[in-house]
Design brief:
The protein is of the alpha/beta class. The chain has one domain: P-loop containing nucleotide triphosphate hydrolases (Rossmann fold, 3-Layer(aba) Sandwich), CATH 3.40.50. 38% of the residues lie in helices and 26% in strands. Strand 4 and strand 5 form a beta hairpin. Helix 3 packs parallel to helix 6.
């Protein structure tokens, strides 16, 4: 098991955002999390990344057969060092910085040689970014900014990539391209945890999936089985 979430509770003041969440991510998989707006999906990602602290529960990280590490009390920079990187909702690139500068920030914990190597890998994955490497990020299209946000996260050499709504606000053609890239990243050996409102695309791309409702996991199964689940069809796939 690469990542295990057990009985996780997260609160915003007096409001329960996550209630007893149980979730496992196997190494090498794409795991999807679907659910309506406000279900708690982003809260879960932020808690895994160390941006939020759980009230109770544990998040355990185990990689390459090593003993599991409880990481739910770690700082975000420590979690990145473990091998977990997040692509935030809305991309959140540094608009006034160039593509190259954004990528360098993603690899700030890496040795100089590794930064150069990872940047070339990003440019190979996203040729459009290579062509515009000295262009300010704020002048890119939405799809190009999403590519940059993914590339920035990959600069840290993650073993687990957290993706928060990568298709948000993008045209259908660009969405298909982004999902092709996600599958390519996974086939290269990076495990992916995908939060996505485009339920059909998410389930069609994932190995395993979870459905979240009001801060709780209500369904968990192989992704292809959830595609055929009547409750999922009715609530998230348009019947």
């Amino acid at each position: 098991m690469l990542l295990s979430v057990s009985n996780l509770h997260v609160r915003y003041g007096g409001i329960a955002a996550l209630q007893g969440v149980e979730l496992q991510i196997e190494q090498g998989q794409i795991v999807a999390l679907i659910g309506a707006n406000g279900a708690g999906k982003t809260t879960l990602l932020k808690t895994i990344s160390g941006l939020l602290r759980p009230a109770t529960g544990t998040i355990s990280w185990g990689c390459n057969g090593q003993a599991a590490i409880e990481c739910h009390r770690m700082r975000p920079d420590q979690i990145v060092r473990l091998g977990i990187s997040q692509v935030p909702e809305g991309r959140q690139v540094f608009a006034e910085l160039t593509i190259t500068e954004n990528l360098r920030l993603g690899g700030y914990q890496q040795p100089h040689g590794a930064v150069r190597e990872e940047m070339e890998r990003c440019f190979a994955l996203f040729p459009v970014l290579a062509e515009r490497r000295n262009q300010r990020a704020g002048t890119l299209s939405g799809g190009e900014q999403q590519m940059l946000a993914i590339g920035r996260a990959l600069m840290a050499r993650p073993k687990l990539l957290l993706l928060d709504e990568p298709s948000l606000g993008l045209a259908p053609l660009i969405v298909r391209k982004i999902f092709e890239i996600i599958r390519q990243i996974n086939s290269g050996g990076t495990t992916v945890f995908l939060v996505e409102q485009n339920a059909h695309m998410a389930l069609a791309s994932a190995h395993r999936a979870y459905v979240m409702q009001t801060g709780q996991i209500i369904l968990a199964d192989e992704a292809k089985k959830l595609l055929d689940n009547p409750l999922v069809k009715e609530a998230y796939l348009g019947g």
